[in-house]
UniProtKB/TrEMBL annotation:
One of its GO terms (molecular function) is mRNA binding. PROSITE patterns: PROKAR_LIPOPROTEIN, TPR. Pfam families: TPR_19. This is Type IV pilus biogenesis/stability protein PilW. TPR repeats lie at residues 70-103, 140-173. One of its GO terms (biological process) is mRNA processing. Gene3D superfamilies: Tetratricopeptide repeat domain (1.25.40.10). SUPFAM superfamilies: TPR-like. SMART domains: TPR.
Amino acid sequence: MLRTRVYLILIISVLTGCVTVKEEQNKPEFDNIQAAESRISLGLGYLKAGEWQQGRQNIELALKHAPTYYRSLLTYAYLLQKTGDIKLAEKQYKKALRYSPKNGDVQNNYGVFLCRYKRYDEAQAAFAKAIAQPYYYKTSGSYENAALCAMKAGDVAKAKEMFDKALKHEPNRVVSTLQLVRLELKDGEYNQARSRLFYFHKRYGYRADSLYLTIKLESAQDRLLEVEKYAKVLASQYPESKEYRLYLANEY
């Protein structure tokens, strides 16, 4: 943490030095967005290091530099969420929507916010608006967020539909793949789950969570030798994992 703090302070010092030593005629035109981005980066770095006062100060400076810039508003909204000021956080999201109504990031982040507070229908509408933006390149992420929100709301059919769409846009998404496998196992769609896990392991190798799902799959089909095989892999590669403890407790 100390190394991070020193690094951040050095960046501030260097930036300050660059401004003070240049002659007036050589100063570049002040770029509010660039200044805001610098403060956002610093602010988030401080928050990650646990320096909340410094983090807030930099994020508020970003907002001062560029009060209508969507990333300034989203970062400030994030800070307010973290500090429990939910009403003011939503006000910042709505302000970002007012200034950047066609920005997919704004719609997506607002959807995540709404879902967190169980406003599921509004959240799905926000995700749909993000996905509908013609130049939004994070479509698969918004589909995945919509799926996770649907799961939280208990709408399994919607979740499966959205995970499937996320994977059609980006076939190698880890969360969407494994969550869809979980839902397929619950619905008895074993062939689909098996195929999905096969290609997942081919690309990423064995992970504790994917091995555990494989054990659940083999157990569901009474393939006990396969259960034992994958359990040994789980034990050898991830002996301290939560998944291995679940296996030992026969929770699969």
